[in-house]
């Protein structure tokens, strides 16, 4: 068990499980997603989502962590159904993305302490009528600076963490990481930093690794993000520097065309192509650590 505590669990949409039950895990992906920034490219097809999850299972996958936060079409009730149908563990997020993904009316309704209360409620009581509880808080800032929205959401995420123990995920935004783990006192090992592949700077990678947070390489096969051909070297460099036990892998499928069932790489690509490529670079034992043991630690907590 993680930390030797029998009470430590991963919170999935079907209930809490032991960390060692999570299995081979896609640590950052999306089965459902809707945003005004992606008009006409929503992930909303239930049949396709179920087929994608089944394809991941057939490739050897056992767990998927969906980072889609509040107000972006999570479809928690459908996550419950397709998780049960496919036998894949699904971890669902609460949280809030950048302001551009929401209308002003929705954000205004959450001002004051409403956002933190929402996060805690979804982590402990459940998401709407779905019966599913969230298992993490997802937030985001700007790449170069923190605006008022990012500070507001990070503060609410920290409050939710301190109230529940929930892990917090964030994009590769060092200012948000510094705020969470500094002023807001979230322990670094409770933070998962995503999109390291989008900024293939080894100095930034080592800086993030030294903080003690988990580091997710996600979004394979996106050539415009310099992922596939740079990622193995970046992962190897971090592993050789002693950070192999902090690395995670995810697909970050954000449009319908990126699903494997619609001709894209999708979730199975992690195991079909990325896994053997990394095994050639690092060896099978290290890749097993990244796909299985690391997510079991990263997304498990002693829920309060």
UniProtKB/TrEMBL annotation:
Coiled coil segments of this chain: none
S-adenosyl-L-methionine as UniProt keyword: no
Cofactor binding note of this UniProt entry: Binds 2 divalent metal cations per subunit.
Domain of life assignment: Bacteria
Classification via Pfam families: PTE
N6-carboxylysine found at: 138
Assigned keywords, A-Z: Hydrolase, Metal-binding
Cofactors required: a divalent metal cation
Ligand binding (Zn(2+) 2): 138, 171, 195
Gene3D superfamilies the UniProt entry points to: Metal-dependent hydrolases
One Gene Ontology term of the molecular function aspect: zinc ion binding
Annotated Zn(2+) 1 binding sites: 28, 30, 138, 252
Family named by the database record: Belongs to the metallo-dependent hydrolases superfamily. Phosphotriesterase family.
PANTHER family for the chain: PHOSPHOTRIESTERASE-RELATED (PTHR10819), PHOSPHOTRIESTERASE-RELATED PROTEIN (PTHR10819:SF3)
UniProt-recorded name of the protein: Phosphotriesterase
The organism of origin for this protein: Streptomyces naganishii JCM 4654
């Amino acid at each position: 068990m993680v930390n030797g505590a029998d009470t430590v669990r991963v919170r999935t949409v079907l209930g809490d499980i032991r960390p060692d039950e999570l299995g081979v895990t896609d640590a950052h992906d999306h089965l459902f997603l809707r945003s005004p920034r992606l008009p006409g490219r929503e992930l909303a097809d239930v049949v396709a989502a179920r087929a994608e999850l089944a394809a991941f299972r057939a490739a050897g996958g056992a767990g998927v962590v969906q980072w889609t936060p509040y107000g972006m079409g999570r479809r928690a009730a459908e996550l419950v159904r397709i998780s049960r149908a496919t036998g894949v563990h699904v971890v669902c997020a609460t949280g809030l993305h950048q302001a551009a993904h929401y209308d002003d009316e929705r954000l205004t309704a959450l001002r004051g302490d409403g956002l933190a209360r929402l996060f805690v409620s979804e982590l402990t009581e459940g998401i709407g009528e779905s019966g599913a509880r969230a298992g993490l808080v997802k937030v985001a800032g700007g790449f170069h600076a923190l605006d008022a929205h990012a500070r507001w959401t990070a503060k609410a995420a920290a409050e939710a963490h301190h109230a529940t123990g929930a892990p917090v995920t964030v994009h590769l935004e060092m200012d948000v990481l510094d705020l969470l783990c500094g002023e807001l006192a979230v322990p670094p090992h409770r933070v998962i930093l995503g999109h390291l592949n989008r900024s293939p700077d080894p100095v930034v990678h080592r800086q993030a690794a030294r903080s003690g947070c988990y580091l997710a390489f996600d979004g394979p096969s996106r050539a415009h993000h310099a992922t596939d051909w740079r990622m193995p070297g970046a992962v190897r460099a971090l592993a050789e520097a002693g950070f192999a036990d902090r690395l995670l892998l995810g697909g970050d499928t954000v449009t319908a065309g990126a699903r494997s069932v619609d001709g894209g790489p999708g979730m199975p690509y992690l195991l079909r192509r990325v896994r053997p490529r990394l095994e050639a670079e690092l060896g099978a034992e290290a890749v097993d650590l990244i796909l299985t043991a690391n997510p079991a630690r990263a997304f498990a907590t002693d829920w309060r």
